[in-house]
Design a protein that fits this description.
Layout: E1 6-11, H1 14-30, E2 34-39, H2 46-56, E3 63-64, H3 72-90, E4 94-98, H4 102-113, E5 118-121, H5 133-144, E6 147-150, H6 153-161, E7 180-183, H7 187-196, E8 209-212, H8 216-219, H9 222-239, E9 243-246, H10 249-256, H11 262-268, E10 271-274, H12 279-288, E11 292-294, H13 297-305, E12 310-312, H14 320-324, E13 328-330, H15 337-347, H16 361-377
Parallel strand pairs: 1-2, 1-4, 2-3, 4-5, 5-6, 6-7, 8-9, 8-11, 9-10, 11-12, 12-13
Helix pairs in contact: 1-2, 1-7, 1-16, 3-4, 4-5, 7-13, 9-15
The protein binds uridine-5'-diphosphate.
């Protein structure tokens, strides 16, 4: 097995650019590592992709794919083929993927096809909701991984229940059958801690509620989406609050399909609609918010990292510990919104614990990898 220090890093969707930024910083100090960056083209416009490269200081990708976007299946196939060709051309010793998107699965499949060890960052998460494409992507990617990097002990436990256990003490290189399971902190928490320094401390309840929605289960059906919007609007009015809502393109498409002048309606419901925000602007909006309402996994975590409480607009979450700690509450349907939001708002800000580590998860990963590779050499 060729275990040189050369990674092919696969990114392609908004949360992956953010996760990759923490790894990029850690790689600079990790000693002797070379990285080739591949952009799968899953998100390709300025709002969901371009702005993050500038803002987070990511290198321009060495390989940029342009997959067929007419269907999910065609896009996935094109991404798989493109990543496989990049592996053949660049001959990395490792392929790195993040999270649970189709780019993650495509990278995992290509690494498996070319028998290159796969490092999965954010391994072991489970929502137990097999209807979600992300859950399928997570489970399959973990099964194809040689190094599984878990953000929490719960993630390590999920893997153990699926008979994926750490074999790093064996003194062999990692493989799918004998994987290395590493518990670090959470790489997105690293970024929240790192970039928090860029904005001023603002007292809770001085700003607007932050809301984000982009999951197909919430935003593809106009009737359901408007039920959420009306329920959130009624709650804002009852609390004399306003919300800022950076609207994801998928959500905007659905809002635009309605016959009513949607922008005016949002305004009258107390919502300031905005284009998708840059990362630091989003963090600042989380930090200023008296409460966060979201169906995004990343935003849910950022609320935790920045000490804000969060209503999760879903019936399940991968980040269950936040619910157990009382920072987040699941809200499966618009009719439960008011009760949950009133209760959580009443609790005030949240003091985060050490769930996601000390803000140096990516560094910890590189230190562990270096030590283990050194062990193999010896
Ligand atoms: N995000 C952002 N601008 C926005 C909304 C979200 O920068 O207007 C960031 C957010 O900080 C988080 C990430 O995007 O880190 C989450 O991505 P998304 O909600 O698309 O996916 P998920 O986390 O649900 O997979």
């Amino acid at each position: 097995m060729n275990l040189s220090k050369h990674m092919l890093i696969v990114v392609g969707a908004r949360p992956q650019f953010i996760k990759a930024a923490a790894l990029h910083r850690a790689l600079k100090d990790a000693g002797g590592w070379r990285s080739t960056w591949l952009h799968s083209g899953q998100h390709h416009d300025e709002a969901l992709s371009g702005q993050f490269f500038h803002e987070l200081g990511l290198p321009q990708p060495d390989v940029r794919l342009a997959p067929n976007a007419t269907s999910r299946e065609l896009r996935l196939g094109d991404m798989m083929g493109g990543i496989r060709s990049a592996i053949d051309a660049h001959r990395p010793a490792w392929v790195v993927v993040f999270g649970d998107t189709d780019s993650t699965l495509a990278g995992a499949w290509a690494a498996t096809a070319r028998q290159v060890p796969l490092i999965h960052i954010e391994a072991g998460l489970r929502s137990q909701d097999w209807r979600m494409p992300e859950e399928v992507n997570r489970v399959l990617t973990d099964r194809m991984s040689s190094v599984l990097v878990c953000p929490t002990y719960a993630a390590v436990d999920h893997l153990r229940r699926e008979a994926i256990v750490d074999n790093s003490v064996d003194g062999e290189g990692p493989s799918v059958l004998k994987p290395w399971v590493l518990k670090t902190g959470d790489i997105m928490h690293d970024n929240a801690v790192h970039f928090k320094a860029q904005f001023d401390i603002v007292k809770a309840r001085s700003g607007r509620v932050l809301m984000t929605m982009h999951r197909p289960g919430n935003v593809d059906d106009p009737d359901l989406l408007w039920s959420w919007v009306e329920a959130i609007g009624a709650w804002l009015k009852s609390q004399d609050l306003r919300a800022v809502w950076p609207i994801h393109p998928r959500t905007k498409k659905c809002l635009q399909s309605s016959s009513q002048p949607w922008w005016d309606r949002l305004e009258s419901l107390g919502m300031d609609a905005a284009p998708p925000m840059g990362y630091v602007e989003l963090l600042k909006a989380v930090h200023e918010a008296p409460l966060v309402l979201t169906d995004s996994g990343g935003v849910q975590k950022e609320a935790y990292s920045l000490g804000r409480r969060c209503i999760v607009l879903r019936d399940c979450t991968e980040w269950t510990e936040q619910v157990e700690e009382g920072q987040s509450v699941l809200c499966p349907a618009p009719r439960s919104l008011k009760d949950s939001a009133d209760r959580l708002l009443g609790h005030g800000p949240f003091t985060p614990g050490s769930l996601y580590g000390n803000g140096h998860a990516a560094t910890e990963l590189m230190v562990k990898l270096n030590l283990m590779l050194k062990g193999l050499d010896g």
